[in-house]
Amino acid sequence: MQFSQINRTSIGLFSIQQLDMVYNQNRFIPFIEQAFSEDAFEDAIDRKKENYSHANRMVLVDVLSKQYASIASKEEVNRKIAILQKDSTFTVTTGHQLSLFTGPAYFVYKILHVIKQCEELKIAYPENDFVPVYWMASEDHDFEEIQSVNLFNQSVTWESEQKGPVGRFDLERFEPVKAQLKSLFANHLSSELVQLIDDFSGENYGVAFRKFIHAIFGKYGLIILDGDDPFLKEAFVPLMKKELSEQFAHLAVTATNEELYREGAKIQVTPRDINLFYIEKGLRQRIVKIEDRFEIQGKGTFTLDELNRMLDVTPENFSPNVVLRPLFQELVLPNLCYVGGVGEISYWLQLKRVFQAANIVYPLIQVRNSIIWIDANSSEKMEKLQLTMDDIFQDIDVLKKHFVEANSTEDLNFSKLNALVLALKEEVILTVASVDESLNQFAIAETVRLDKQLDALKDKLFKQSKSKHEKALKSIEQLKEKLFPGNGLQERKVNFFQLTPDGNFSATLDVLKNKMLPFSGDLIVVKE
């Protein structure tokens, strides 16, 4: 494999705000605590050390021990849980909902990013330890978003009528999903991946998914934390009560949004008056404030005192939305940095005041690595078409035009014609001026008409030449669609396991992990 990197500014797929989130976070200093860099971790360690209690640390270790009790142990995971007891141990975190079969490839890339970053931080700050964390967003209910996965141009879908938090779903009607996934690797039934599919089971989807991800990444010491836990929620109760009584998150985000609007920044999320859900198995409903009472559709209306008592008794029945989830995460983890996609990271710009109101340290934020994978067939096609790495990042129409021009030199060499026309235009203007200088503008207008006629002739000749290269141009279209499906990033459409069609993914995972660039914002290009 060949590895290279390319600056995101050169491919035209990102907005200025997104590029600044990668390369110029200083622009957002009013909305973040500190711009991301490797050196910034020194201050981040000091801030978190002062703000994160040992009591919270021990709750975290206890919860992790319980959540991993029924999972086949991995030595490195056990070691990481043990060192989390030390006040000199910190985390780097990413998060994602429970996608089917990991969903798009970026799910895997963001986890590899935090694993590699922790390894490099240990070298830079040897007196500390760093633990990679995947925050398993099991309380999300957007099942339609994650119930399908595209693999080898086939869509695999889990059909289920269940509602509420996806992590609490039963695995009803999931056997057909496993059978369809296995059929895609029918020639490799003894592979690592088929074994994982066979082993996918648990009391609910959250447990099964956790085991699946642990089997893939556990060897690296990745800690998987499910926030849907009564003991973690108990630590968050004071802030949930504060939200119910003061609506502090709405006030904080609204004030920040006004400033972001003035800066011309894009607003990612809109806060609710109450940024909490009430959840049970099969149910996830907003808590809505109506005058002096609170309504939960399907459960009734409640006073503030009644909700507070419910929080004390069953905190697991309350769930933060997208505005408060980062606060919950940073409360329970000794976290230094949150790593996510460029859109995901952008909404953290709205949250600094929320953290300040809750007296919780705002972490470093970083856009994850992105990877463009050029498989062997695509590499061969590029060589046949004589396309360079720079070529494939060009707009498709520009690329096709350049290809035709480069491969039709005899037909489309207009240099002699251009020189003759230029000489003719100059001669026309000189001749007219020698007769009557008042006709100069007329002469110039006529030369412009001549230019337009020549351009029309060139276009016609270009189209004629283009028709001779239709097969090659079709190959270019196919190549671009494979590497940039829908004119977007490949990692948002392609599943990681498509890159390992024999089902043995570990070696590829190791290589990618080692090639991650956790302190660079550039795109990583992998060429087979």
Give a verbal description of the structure.
This protein is 48% helix and 15% strand. By secondary structure, the chain is an alpha/beta fold. It has a domain at 376-499. It has a 5-stranded parallel beta sheet. A 5-stranded antiparallel beta sheet has the order 10-9-8-7-11. The chain is globular. The protein starts with a strand and ends with a strand.
Give the secondary structure arrangement, pairings included.
Layout (H helix, E strand, L loop, with lengths): L1 E5 L9 H8 L16 H12 L2 H14 L7 H9 L5 E9 L8 H19 L4 E9 L5 H4 L1 E4 L2 E4 L17 H9 L8 H7 L6 H13 L5 E4 L3 H17 L1 H15 L13 E5 L2 E8 L2 E4 L3 E3 L1 H10 L4 E3 L4 H8 L2 E6 L1 H5 L5 H7 L5 E4 L3 E4 L1 H10 L3 H4 L3 H11 L8 H21 L4 H28 L2 H14 L22 H10 L7 E5 L1
Parallel strand pairs: 2-3, 2-12, 3-6, 12-13, 14-15
Antiparallel strand pairs: 1-15, 4-5, 7-8, 7-11, 8-9, 9-10
Helix pairs in contact: 5-22, 10-12, 11-15, 16-21, 18-21, 19-20
